[in-house]
Design brief:
By secondary structure, this protein is an alpha+beta fold. It has one domain. 43% of the residues lie in helices and 21% in strands. The chain is built from four helices and three strands, in the order H-H-H-H-E-E-E. The longest helix has 44 residues. The protein is rod-shaped, with a radius of gyration of 30 Å.
Length: 155
């Protein structure tokens, strides 16, 4: 007859017992999986915000194409660009105009391009910037500046 106590039997069988090993393994890998998931969520949100900025800049530039009055309406261009955003908090909008010759050189809007005797084209540029702060990334990194620029010929 074996007179071992239940405690000794448990200790003897402990190295061979597999109960609970998957729970321990899961507990060890869970933090790594959560950090990877948080990084993917932050990256996805950054890509979404950048796409939204690109679309908003294009919308603002397209507003300027509607007519002569809209081409010079900075407030209207900015309002159209901001309206295309789901959240315009922290977004800066810069609008500029330039006249360019077909070769890409800058020219006064009243001049003609010397080589071709063409009138220079008038362009509007809508530049948008956003300091994107990731939800989980503020622990690890500083805000990332996202930006987009749309350039369209007005006339």
């Amino acid at each position: 007859m074996n007179h071992t106590t239940p405690t000794l039997r448990t200790l003897r069988n402990f190295p061979r017992d597999q109960k609970g090993s998957s729970v321990v393994e899961f507990a060890l890998i869970l933090p790594i999986l959560l950090v990877a998931l948080m990084g993917m969520v932050d990256y996805g949100m950054m890509v979404f915000a950048n796409n939204e900025l690109e679309n908003a800049a294009r919308t603002g530039a397209q507003y300027a194409l509607q007519g002569v009055d809209q081409a010079d309406d900075d407030a209207g261009i900015e309002a159209a660009a901001r309206a295309a955003l789901s959240d315009d908090t922290g977004v800066t909008v810069n609008i500029s105009r330039a006249c360019l010759c077909p070769d890409g050189s800058a020219s006064a809007c009243t001049d003609t391009c010397t080589a071709d005797e063409f009138e220079p084209g008038r362009y509007v540029t809508v530049n948008m910037r956003l300091d994107f702060t990731p939800i989980f990334g503020h622990i690890v990194s500083d805000p990332t500046q996202l930006g987009s620029e749309a350039i369209l010929r007005i006339e």
